[in-house]
């Protein structure tokens, strides 16, 4: 679960997320997150969410996007909506921090669990330079969070066969899909007042 003020940071990918409204305090409304991406920062890999819609609204800097294969750039005041099932990728497209309000519909408690797990692995030095874990770890992450996130590479049919074969090996070698030590927020902080105002809370 996530609540207002929870903060998560990925020191490998250059992402920092502060919860403005989490699943714990959403009362049926979408979750809201203030995402800050450092210059050169990017999400780990192209992916889609099976049941969550994301809406990105840029409040500072520039965010590069690839939505369903089409590349573009969002500047201040611009936004993009990513429906469930749409492959997407994004990165900081400028020389300064990109500050983005991300709306997640519905506010699913599994989403922050996935973020905390992937960020935790990266911060522990258990990913590559782009923030992706090795194949054995990825097999368990992809299986554990298949309801939340699906990476587009390798192709789905390959993932099903490959990850199915690798998962038992990964477990025998001590890998897990969820690490309880990674699930706690990295910090508690007061959201930026101006960003909270822009987000309507």
Give a quick summary of the entry.
This protein has 201 residues and is an alpha+beta fold.
Topology:
Layout: E1 6-10, E2 15-21, E3 31-37, E4 47-48, E5 53-60, E6 63-67, E7 70-74, E8 79-82, E9 88-92, E10 98-105, H1 110-123, H2 135-144, E11 150-151, H3 156-172, E12 187-188, H4 193-198
Antiparallel strand pairs: 1-2, 1-12, 2-3, 3-10, 4-11, 5-8, 5-10, 6-7, 6-9
Helix pairs in contact: 2-3
Written description of the protein model:
This protein is an alpha+beta fold and 201 residues long. The chain folds into two domains: 116 residues, Jelly Rolls (Sandwich), CATH 2.60.120.10; 68 residues, no CATH class. It is built from four helices and twelve strands. The strands form three sheets. Strands 8-5-10-3-2-1-12 form a seven-stranded antiparallel β-sheet. The chain has a three-stranded antiparallel β-sheet with strand order 7-6-9, with no helix packed on it. A two-stranded antiparallel ribbon has the order 4-11. A hairpin with a 2-residue loop joins strand 6 and strand 7. Helix 2 crosses helix 3. The two termini are 19 Å apart.
């Amino acid at each position: 679960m996530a609540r207002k003020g929870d903060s998560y940071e990925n020191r490998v990918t250059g992402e920092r997320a502060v919860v403005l409204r989490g699943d714990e305090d959403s009362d049926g409304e979408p979750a809201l997150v203030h995402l800050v991406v450092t210059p050169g920062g990017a999400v780990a890999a192209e992916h889609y969410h099976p049941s969550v819609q994301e809406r990105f609204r840029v409040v500072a800097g520039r965010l590069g996007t690839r939505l369903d294969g089409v590349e573009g750039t969002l500047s201040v005041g611009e936004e993009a909506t990513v429906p469930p099932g749409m492959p997407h990728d994004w990165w900081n497209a400028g020389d300064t921090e990109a500050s983005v309000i991300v709306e997640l519909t519905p506010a699913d408690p599994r989403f922050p669990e996935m973020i905390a797990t992937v960020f935790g692995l990266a911060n522990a030095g258990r990913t590559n330079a782009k923030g992706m874990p090795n194949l054995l770890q990825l097999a368990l992450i992809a299986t554990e969070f298949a309801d939340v996130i699906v990476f587009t590479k390798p192709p789905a049919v390959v993932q099903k066969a490959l990850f199915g074969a690798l998962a038992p090996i990964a477990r025998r070698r001590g890998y897990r899909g969820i690490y309880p030590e990674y699930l706690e927020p990295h910090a508690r902080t007061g959201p930026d007042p101006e960003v909270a105002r822009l987000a309507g809370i």
